[in-house]
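Structural prep section.
Before we set up the soaks we want a predicted structure of the protein with flavin-adenine dinucleotide in place, mainly to decide which crystallisation condition to try first. Input record follows.
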Amino acid sequence: MNEKYDIIVAGAGMAGSLAAAGAAKRGLSVLLLDKNKEEEVGKKTNWGWVCGDAVAQTHLDFIKQHIGLGFSKPELDVKVDGVVAYSPDLQTKVNFDGEGYVLDRPEFEKKTRDYAIKNGAEYVSQFDVEGPIIENNYVVGVFGKDKSMQHKEIRAKAVIDALGVATTLRRRLPDGQFVDRVVDVDDLESTGRYIYDCEVTGEDLHY
Ligand SMILES: Cc1cc2nc3c(=O)[nH]c(=O)nc-3n(C[C@H](O)[C@H](O)[C@H](O)COP(=O)(O)OP(=O)(O)OC[C@H]3O[C@@H](n4cnc5c(N)ncnc54)[C@H](O)[C@@H]3O)c2cc1C
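Run finished without errors. Recording the tokens verbatim:
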């Protein structure tokens, strides 16, 4: 790890990996940090890569156009022609037409992270970001612990907070930053995601 980068990206989930890839592709020096192990890039919780696996073709086109990264098998797992959303009582349904894919999330994140590295980004796994370094009211880097639990301070011209719902960085910002320090509890919703393999028998196409 160097002492100073153009950009530090905190969090190598979907947002962080893409931000790092985009910045590196444009020739900036980038450090991508995540608390996950290298082989578990993008893993969201202890249970796994729980979500973000349904994307529209237009999203993939956008990534290709702006970052130059294209996807295929195995990260694009299943092609779909649309999505149907049902209400819990199954009485109401809403169709979302248009091509898309169910992603293999581990493979998708791995490919994006590797593309960032290929374009010159430095990636450090098992790094726990603990807070921003603040000087003269500006964020000038981050501090945290590396995998051997050593305290580290790293500086950059800009820091991208891609820690997901975690507010580790935001909550330590100085006053008057026009950024919410915590996610309002009213903006949080419990969700679940289940993948079923169904055997469709006879005429019952209910599911
Ligand atoms: C049940 C469910 C289903 C969903 N389904 C879809 C879907 O079908 N399609 C879709 O597009 N979106 C879906 N979403 C939304 C999608 O998952 C999120 O928008 C997306 O994952 C957010 O990406 P992110 O990179 O911002 O955050 P995250 O994916 O949460 O990534 C954050 C990263 O930061 C790291 N991190 C956190 N704290 C620290 C720390 N202190 N130090 C170092 N690293 C840290 C984590 O390890 C993680 O890698 C779904 C969400 C849920 C909950």
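Observations: Helices lie at 14-25, 57-67, 105-118.
Flagged for discussion at group meeting.
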